[in-house]
């Protein structure tokens, strides 16, 4: 088995259906689908029961594991060479997405970890030199854009929610610094009422607590040049854009 598509679920059968439908049309068929279900009801079980033509393993958690332990449960059940985490509200962008991920890892045999997202040459260079810069901003993106080898030590920290992906990326890239990268758009990141990041993005106390935990656990060492770059890109340039937009409105759309 080449790829284990690990899908931790909690309700939202409509978005899970969209994901499963995107898997059905894949040109690469050397995969298994692991659905680890945290849903209290049986709506997810009923849905996956309709996909008898897919190599799908359904596991109902006896009690809710929560995020990210439900992710880890799906990984534990995986038997493939590669782990492809897919959150149930995301989906594969094209019919060749899985094949492209497999090719990406084959072309980079030393890589344990890979991801698909557009980055600048400078950002890629900084990430190669020091993965700790992810503590300043998530260059990699959501877990659904990643793929990694099925190693027994690669699990997500269940103490985290907001920074769980960043902590995982830093830890894996510190241990296995060679990573595979493509700028192709292989996965579309969706949204749903149950998306955890949307629910907690304004919880400043939680985010601050996790930042302190992350700093203490990993003893992050930042590249100061990248720190300046990150500030200019995300703060200064944004302020300039807003100022230009304000001037534009005042010149061409003056208040009545």
Count of folded domains: 2
Find the CATH topology of the largest domain: Spore Coat Polysaccharide Biosynthesis Protein SpsA, Chain A
Query: How many helix segments?
Result: 9
In N-to-C order, the SSE pattern is: EHEHEHEEHEHEHEEHHH
Largest sheet: 7 strands, mixed
What's the CATH architecture name of the largest domain?
Alpha-Beta Complex
Tell me the CATH superfamily of the largest domain.
Spore Coat Polysaccharide Biosynthesis Protein SpsA, Chain A
What Rg, in angstroms, do the CA atoms define? 20 Å
Q: What is the CATH class designation of the largest domain?
A: Alpha Beta
Number of strands: 9
What do these coordinates show?
- The protein is α/β, with parallel strands linked by helices and 256 residues long.
- The protein folds into 2 domains: 3-222, Spore Coat Polysaccharide Biosynthesis Protein SpsA, Chain A; 226-256.
- Helix content is 42%, strand content 15%.
- It has helices at residues 13-24, 43-48, 69-76, 97-107, 121-129, 164-175, 196-200, 204-218, 224-252, and strands spanning 3-9, 31-37, 56-60, 82-85, 91-92, 113-116, 146-149, 179-182, 187-188.
- It is globular and about 60 Å long.
- The mean pLDDT is 89.
Task: Supply database-style keywords.
Spore Coat Polysaccharide Biosynthesis Protein SpsA, Chain A, alpha/beta, 9 helices, single chain, 7-stranded mixed β-sheet
